[in-house]
Amino acid sequence: MRTSLFITCYNDTLFPETGRAVVRLLDRLGVEITFNPEQTCCGQMHANTGFRAEAFSQAKRFVRMYKDAESVLIPSSSCVAMIRDQYPGLFAELGSPTLRDEFEALLPRVYELSEFLIDKLGVQDVGAYFPHRVTYHASCHGLRSLQVDDKPMRLLQNVRGLQLAPIENLDRCCGFGGTFSIKNAEVSSAMLAGKVHDVLSTRAEFCAALDNSCLMHIGGSLHRQYTGVRTIHLAQILASTENDPAEVLA
Amino acid sequence: MSHAVLDPRVAPEFPKAALPVLRDTQLRKNVAHATDVIQAKRAKLVAEKKDWQELRTAAAAIRDNVLGNLGDYLEQFEERCTAAGGQVHWASDAAEARRIILDILREEQAREVIKIKTMTSAEIDLNPALKSAGVHAIETDLAELILQLGKEEPSHIVVPALHVNRSQVREIFSKSMHLEGLSDEPQALTAAARSYLRNKFLTIPTAISGANYLVAETGSVVIVESEGNGRMCLTLPRTLITLAGIEKIIPRFEDLEVMLQILARSATGERMNPYNSLWTGVTEGDGPQRFHVVLLDNGRSEILARKTERQTLRCIRCGACQNTCPVYRQTGGHAYGSVYGGPIGAILTPQLMHMEHAQSLPYASSLCGACYEVCPVKINIPEVLIELRAQVVDQDRHKTSRLFDPMYMGMRMANSVFASAGRFRAAQRLGRTALKPFTGKDGWIRSLPGLGAKWTITRDLRGLPEQSFREWWEKQGRKMP
Amino acid sequence: MTVATSSRQSILDRIRKATAAGGGTGDDELQRGYIRKGSLNEDERIALMTERLREYDAEVVESGVADLPATIAAELFAGGKKVLAAPQGLPAQWLAQGVNWRIDGNLDYAELDGVEGVVTAASAGIAESGTIVLHHGPQEGRRVLSLLPDWHLCILRASQIVQTLPEYFALYPHPPALATMLSGPSATADIEMTRIKGVHGPRFLHVVIVRDAAQTRTGATSSAGAGQAG
Q1: Domain span at residue B423?
Q2: In this predicted model, what pLDDT tens digit does every residue of B83-122 receive, in sequence order?
Q3: Which residue from A87, B83, B144, B266 could staple onto B139, CB 3.0 to 4.6 Å apart?
Q4: Do the domain assignments include residue A39?
Q5: CA B361, CA A180: separation in Å to the nearest integer?
Q6: In C, residues 42-101, which contact B (CB 8 Å cutoff)?
Q7: Digit-coded pLDDT (tens) for A186-234
Q8: Assessment of whether the complete model's pTM goes beyond 0.90
Q9: How many domains does chain A have?
Q10: Chain-chain contact of A12 with B469 (C-beta, under 8 angstroms)
Q11: How far apart, in whole angstroms, are the C-alpha atoms of residue B103 and residue B125?
């Protein structure tokens, strides 16, 4: 089986360890992985901020780049949500019939990581080992748009040594919201305070999620407050084994 | 208590209006408590309803059917209501609605009117207009009475006084009702309101109401409520004026079997509101013998014309989106600078203002989607928010002032960067160099200048790693397609 | 009023222009996939109605048809009610002896406000939500009659009780001009979300459910007639 990794712009720049973990994990599972160096961004930031024309040009770029891919794997639920929820509207308004056809053919082959593992590969136990207490943060896009449901939990439950600590208010947003965290920095911070409280109440060592965007937000506060609790992308936990433990930056 | 400005034309922008609220301990506690209570009740009753999703689907379809054929339904309603003895008026905007109502009141020689809670009357600024015309308006909903006597502004669609606590209510009531030694027990406060209003109900011959539904098939009007103040206003006076947005139509009496089931569960977490009242024009020997309906457009027909935004008009004002919204949970309603707060307010207010005011509201959301999930008529609020954001961006694109807007320029620049992998790589390298002076020895950034300072007010940021993912991939000599 | 006429036209014009492109769901496309018919038998229906009414703090008693006047009288005496209002069409045998009855013809508000309670019939009961529906016919009286008195005794026949809200609407292909749905006594949660019973409407709701079994059996499938009040 082959898949094309769309790493996403912010993982590429800020969280390369997540990408490396995806590669390690898929190598282990025997999936051939390719990386198109022309890739940049799915357009989510522009779309969500109201820059529709800009979002469209990135969306078009994405479709052109992956139209022949066997499948596209994206370790970010919000970028997958962008493609599923917003591309259709953008293409209906600004796209050509050819582009719309290419997109429709591509869409069913686009996967978020937990979807790829469970729905496409049919594995729930990826043979990982991560001897830590972990709480799972459900990012809003994974929860409501992708409706990944308990897929990430099922993957985590099969990680040996991992102690899963349930969090209160699982379905409540951490307050990131992309440019929301800048435009409405104070309200966003108030939301974050509640989320951090819930994370700390679990007494977990790590807070894991499908999206490094939420984790950058939650982790930013955990670090600011010297809590000692760290954030980690699901891919890094799943890539981790006894001999090759997770790559976790400071 | 805060002194909120709920006029979108002059209210401060959302981020600014939110600041005092975030520091208001009392308000934060009250809002969190109220929304928790209603949410828990709602969740329980929705869970017991096995056909909840089917009801939502039907409700959305009924509302879409109304909106797609609104002209016909309004004419049908007018015809049936008129045939039943009601008088139907049409108001293009707020000013015209106020004028129509004041004309009726003049004809009735009304000095006082009793009112049932209506958001629409707040939307058209009716009370100040009544005051200028020398008509004393008496709010009869308990929460509205608290707000009116305490000179407060509503902060929630369904429980407008949720930001006022019992001791504040006690203070307001004992002062304005001249009740020494009134206790702060909700029971006692409620009893005080009952006796304060009872005589007014019995003697004031004119009432003003809103409407939950206008039934096209029969010309009937429906109001749901809990306290009985609505029933008093609807049945005791000689004259009743109902102010309703043109979108409040439902096609048939039978459609209430859907709308009533979803409304109470979504709004207050009840299987049914304690009282639902339906009346049709004028009934001899029962209730007001003069009945006026004022149909208000006030921007609604423009919303109707827009493809994505039309769904806004499905709204039945249940407030479920407010109760679930994590932003509203922090700020309550006042920060929205309008009588319509929360997610629905964030999309409705700018549209009612023809996108000239309240432009910060479409951005007052993290787009988490909780509102869409609970909406009983399936309004995709995030989708509309994004549409409105696009309008805000596009209407200003030609302005030179945008060249000095760091967010705008940043987004334009990012677009050019994302258009080419080469530029993207260069930008990654540039970013690494630019952030280095701000990055501590531990690899973390504690403080940033400019827009970045908005991030670092409460969060650290991990500095950019030495190697991007793509650089690592290439070093590995891994496969490129 | 020429101004009003022109606004009417301009609003309708704007609406028609906005909707000309279509996009609305057709009337016949409406999906009504929700539950319309209930599944409970009569005993279960009555039990559910009773349970729901009691959740709302209403008092509920059951009665047979024959002993209904005695049941009503017992309720009134237990409540110590001496001065009561009643609608004109209330059956004479329901008017218990020893009560000062004020039959509503044109009682003024002060008089109605002064009585100790009111007795009425009802048009329907909806078990799932514990709702009593009044259509304000001769046995139910005009709307203020069941509003101003603080105590309301409502006589509901078992054959009038449906399980679901859609079943109530199915009973009335010809909609009533007036309807009041009562789901418990008036209440508010406006002060700190504390539920307080009794704001402006009657604070005490008593319901007598009359087991009119003979009618129920024939009315179980086509209960349109049985549902009509007065």
Answers
A1: 406-476
A2: 999 999 999 999 999 999 999 999 999 999 999 989 999 9
A3: B144
A4: yes
A5: 11
A6: 52, 56
A7: 999 999 999 999 999 999 999 999 999 999 999 999 999 999 999 999 9
A8: yes
A9: 2
A10: yes
A11: 16
